[in-house]
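Letters spell out the chain; the tokens describe the backbone. To illustrate:

===
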Amino acid sequence: GERVAVRLEPAEGGSGEWHWAEYDAVVGANGSASALRAALYEDALAGPASAFTGYACAQGFVVAPEKSAPALHELAGAGSLMALGDGTVVWAQHYASDPADHRVCFYISRAAASPSALRQEIEQVGGTGARAVHRWAAEVLRDWHPAFVEMAHAAEWYVLRNLYQHPERPRMHESARSTTLALCGDALHAMVPFQGAGANVGIEGAADIADAILEAARSRAFARTGDERVQAVELVSALRAAEKRMFARSAPEAAESIACGKYAYCAQLRSVIRSSTATPPHTHTPPP
């Protein structure tokens, strides 16, 4: 097993200088555009655009929605909501574990022809920054329930995000098979957001990584020899096994999320819903 060397840099605007550090293991949980992914998997060399799903979103926050967006606050309640329109999906949820911290996080997601399409669409509306997104969101949601239009105007700031989905079975670099670098969460298995599936799988993946490290630390071979090189080999083996478990768990969730995404962003969504609701319910009697 090989120790992992990492270049550490101060945060933007922070103080200090960059330096190198070595670790027995490094876990990358730094999102779908993880720079660490290229060190492990060949697909990352093509760049983030290769995993672009064709969907993008503007993420915004509404502070104190009971005052700034009362209609949204009443509609979302203390939970979350998902609303579908022609080519547009809106998600909204309370974004704080502290009940006293009243914030609603929401996403206005759209089908996009390229990673730059949403930004270009917003720029065409005119203006810059949050004001431009305000105008764009108000136009996109013009025919929606007033709560969503209110939400668009109440947001204090926005972040534009492209949605990525990594291959279900990426090909690992041969040179990386003996490294103690591992990934989890969106860095490993980014998928189209749907009902929190990606987050749930990511949490389970973090537990897999923790179990792998404990497994290596408690290995009989290391306990018997006390040789740290043996422990490193055990750690590599445990991490690669953990990755297999994570991929096996995430593959069906990713396939379901992309399938749901195709329906959610479908331009003919309303006609699909109408036709399904107009059809009498089908009943099935199982064989004896």
